[in-house]
Design a protein that fits this description.
Length: 391
């Protein structure tokens, strides 16, 4: 029996969530089905703000522009990626979240370089802490989903410090009908258990529209507010990949089923459009794969392409239809052009109202540091055999 066959029950309200866990053989086992979840949409817990000093910086890109300003102090840099290199390869990746220049001065012994004091939240993107023996530090920053070089530095004071993990944010399963594995966990005197499961989010037709990983540390269970034999279960850790509250409206729209009308993503801001792409990314995997179509002509409605997520929403919609996925940033689009996503080059793409994107994305930086994300996307399409007509 498929997991989604459990998406129905004989009650006056629908099943909206399935809790499943994959066993050692890769088979999903049902742990429970639920009518609701409280704590699914949460703002990510920001890392604690710290003060760091970037020593001996040779600035480039955004950092060079900032240091050229008379009042560079308190200028925001956005998120700065720090690559730690050992010899000829990067071995660690750190993020300085919402970095702000607090002060700066010439580097002792080399006035062409700078020492920057920045405030930021610090996260290690690889989850390890060993300090490389010989290091150099490459810096990347940008205002879009693609970061460009911001220079390099010889040391980062305060980077290699132990940091406590953020406290987990709980989640409550409302109106849950436990299956045997979950019943067994509820019977244990010591219910807390470091384990993980997938929370499958269903649309009104019982199809999986999203999935999130949640912890199975159960800190409480009680008769459900929905009555009957159902229970409400509190999980100590609802996971760190939950959507933000800005995504709630998009998820409510997709609950009715995948969109069938064009440009339904257009009214949302950049965060909302990124949330739209999250759901589209899941949706393309669900249908049975079919051979890619090649040849033919497609029309891209460019009226609402005012940011990077909107550009990728519009490309996918032009090629495959509403609610579909064809990449969400430069590298992902490159992968899609290689085939396996429904459409493959050669084909012709006519981009209507392309001037909207040209103006809106004039400052978006592409992977190689050139100023126009639109131009780089067009070049990528053309290199893969797509004839692009800008109107």
């Amino acid at each position: 029996m498929r997991i989604t066959d459990h998406a129905r029950w004989d009650r006056g309200f629908p099943v909206k969530y399935l809790l499943v866990q994959e066993d050692e053989d890769g088979v999903e086992r049902l742990w429970g089905r639920c009518a609701g979840v409280e704590g699914l949409f949460v703002e990510p817990v920001p890392p604690t703000r710290e003060i760091l000093t970037l020593r001996g910086c040779s600035p480039d890109g955004l950092l060079s522009e900032v240091l050229a300003e008379p009042g560079a102090s308190y200028r925001g840099l956005g998120d700065v990626c720090v690559e730690v290199w050992n010899d000829d390869r990067p071995v660690q990746w750190w993020t300085l979240a919402d970095a702000v220049v607090v002060a700066h001065q010439p580097h002792p012994g080399d006035p062409a370089r700078h020492d920057l004091v920045v405030g930021a939240g610090v996260t290690n993107d690889e989850g390890f802490f060993e300090v490389p023996e010989a290091t150099r530090f490459e810096l990347f920053a940008g205002t879009t989903t693609v970061a460009a070089s911001a220079g390099r530095c010889s040391a980062v004071d305060g980077l290699f410090e132990p940091r406590a993990d953020a406290a987990p944010v709980p989640m409550e399963l409302i109106g849950c009908e436990p299956a045997e594995p979950l019943l067994a966990a509820l019977r244990r005197p010591q219910r807390a258990e470091r384990d993980w499961a997938d929370l499958l989010v269903l649309d009104r037709h019982g199809a999986v529209m999203a999935s999130r990983t949640v912890g199975l540390d159960i800190t409480g269970a009680s008769p459900s507010v929905l009555g009957g034999t159902l229970v409400d279960i509190t999980l100590a850790d609802g996971g760190d990949d939950r959507p933000s509250p800005t995504a709630r409206a998009i998820w409510a729209e997709w609950y009715e089923g995948p969109p069938t009308e064009p440009n339904r993503w257009a009214p949302y801001d950049s965060k909302g459009r990124a949330a739209w792409l999250d759901l589209a990314t899941r949706a393309w995997r669900v249908p049975t794969p079919r051979p890619d179509r090649t040849g033919g002509a497609y029309d891209l409605d460019g009226r609402f392409v005012t940011d990077v997520p909107g550009l990728h929403c519009a490309i996918a919609e032009a090629l495959l239809g509403p609610g579909r996925y064809f990449g969400r940033e430069w590298n992902a689009l490159k992968d899609c052009l290689g085939g396996g996503f429904g459409v493959a080059p050669p084909f012709t793409l006519t981009w209507h109202d392309s001037e909207v994107a040209r103006r809106a994305l004039a400052d978006a930086e592409d992977p190689e540091g050139r100023p126009s994300y639109l131009e780089e996307i067009v070049r990528l399409l053309e290199r893969h055999g797509v004839t692009v007509v800008l109107r």
